[in-house]
Amino acid sequence: RHPLATFFHLFFRVSAIVTYLFCDWFSNSFVACFVTILLLLSFDFWSVKNVTGRLLVGLRWWNQIDEDGKSHWVFEAKRVPTVAASTEAEARIFWLGLIICPVIWTMFFFSTLFSLKLKWLALVIAGISLQTANLYGYIHCKLGGQKSISRVTSRLFGTADVPKRQSRRISEDGTEELGR
């Protein structure tokens, strides 16, 4: 159903990893490699958060700041009664890409740290941060509509501000249901 979205979901992620691995072959400039990889990671973060998450699995998340200056995280999930085979395959690709890439960037972190290539450490930390932020947001989207899960995670992380987290379910006909 969404082959272009599936392609770009993986394209930016894989391009950032491949560029990180082989950048020394293409360029002797650390700055050019750093900027290229950071741009690929940023494109990936934006496309996953704003496009591919919504198209491939019906989820999205964002942060709102109200008039009082308080931050509210909103997690939204679209209710889909039946999933087609192509959509199921796209969802599997989405989740595998979302989970595997932070693991790869974490391995890069340890290899960079142990090989003492400290100039690359900031880039690897940015990669971990951007990839993990999307993973965290989408896990909350997936589980956010279940009140018991919200209570369990609030107890686990020791946060009492569960009302600040909203989750929205959008049904197939476009009507919206809010949950906390």
TrEMBL record:
Family matches, as InterPro entries: TVP23-like
Superkingdom of this protein's organism: Eukaryota
Gene Ontology cellular-component annotations: Golgi membrane
Membrane topology: Multi-pass membrane protein
Transmembrane segments: 26-46, 93-114, 120-139
Record keywords, A-Z: Membrane, Transmembrane, Transmembrane helix
Record-linked Pfam families: DUF846
Predominant place of localization: membrane
Gene Ontology terms describing biological process: protein secretion; vesicle-mediated transport
Record localization: Membrane
Protein family (similarity comment): Belongs to the TVP23 family.
The protein, known as: Golgi apparatus membrane protein TVP23 homolog
Organism encoding this protein: Rhadina sibilatrix
